[in-house]
Design brief:
Rossmann fold, 4-stranded parallel sheet, two-stranded antiparallel sheet, globular
């Protein structure tokens, strides 16, 4: 089995506007990590490398014991080098190869779609041992933002009044929790049937809004853990802390 099979199945995954996400693209900037948003104190130089599937990171190789990560821009690692992402840290400590199938800007439904597409097209040709999922914020949902049909996502931080705010409040309070609970259960079944160990959390970690994910207690989550990357996304300390949460989950189950 060659990597050509992996590459031939690259057009099935959801693509949002947020990340560059172009197959085989290499560049200095991606998503919100732009020259305008770059923090002057951030002096680590790195590039974004996208594989033939349009996901950030190395090219998936069949029959290689691996860990797969799903999520939005935090999981993709916007704002930091690849090796500092929590997915890479978890995989390294568990002696696995990390392949990210995360897409910046994704809402829950897009992550869910990519997971199902992965099981349909790539799970059988990769030696998947573990899957970790950091689900996006509950308040994020897809919408069309202009007459050209440009697709993006919206959350509390972007909508402040009118019916849109009312809809988001309703979505976040009543619809999203039920929706996410159901899709998390379907992923559990998929992983169980494939004998793949799964660790997932329902918290989108919106550090730029000052929120703390519920699976990390505020008592334990000190300022030392909450740092930033080159843009407003979580930095190396934050990714290290997320990695520790997933490692504990995977090694205690």
């Amino acid at each position: 089995m060659t990597s050509n099979i992996v590459q031939s199945r690259s057009n099935i995954y959801s693509r949002t506007y947020y990340s560059t996400g172009m197959p085989n693209h290499v560049g200095k900037w991606s998503g919100s990590d732009t020259p305008h948003n770059a923090r002057p104190e951030w002096d680590i130089k790195f590039d974004y490398r996208y594989n033939s599937l349009g996901f950030r990171g190395k090219e998936p190789v069949p029959n290689t014991p691996c860990l797969i990560s799903f999520g939005c821009s935090i999981t993709e690692g916007i704002g930091i080098p690849e090796h500092m992402r929590f997915g890479d840290i978890v995989a390294d400590e568990l002696n696995l190869t990390h392949y990210s199938f995360a897409r910046g800007g994704s809402d829950m439904s897009e992550v869910h779609n990519n997971i199902h597409q992965f099981f349909h097209s790539h799970a059988d040709i990769l030696d998947v041992r573990k899957i970790i999922i950091l689900w996006p914020a509950l308040s994020r949902f897809p919408r069309l933002v202009d007459d050209n049909g440009t697709h993006t996502t919206v959350s509390y931080s972007y909508t402040v009044n009118g019916w849109e705010k009312d809809f988001i409040v309703y979505w976040d309070k009543y619809v999203a929790p039920i929706f996410l609970t159901n899709i998390m259960r379907t992923i559990e079944v998929l992983c169980r049937n494939k004998n793949i160990q799964l660790a997932q959390t329902s918290d989108g970690m919106m550090f730029d809004l000052g929120d703390t994910p519920s699976f990390i207690s505020k008592k334990d989550y000190s300022k030392n853990h909450c740092d930033f990357g080159r843009d407003h996304h979580p930095g190396p300390n934050s990714h290290r802390y997320i990695a520790d949460v997933f490692i504990k989950k995977l090694t205690s189950d």
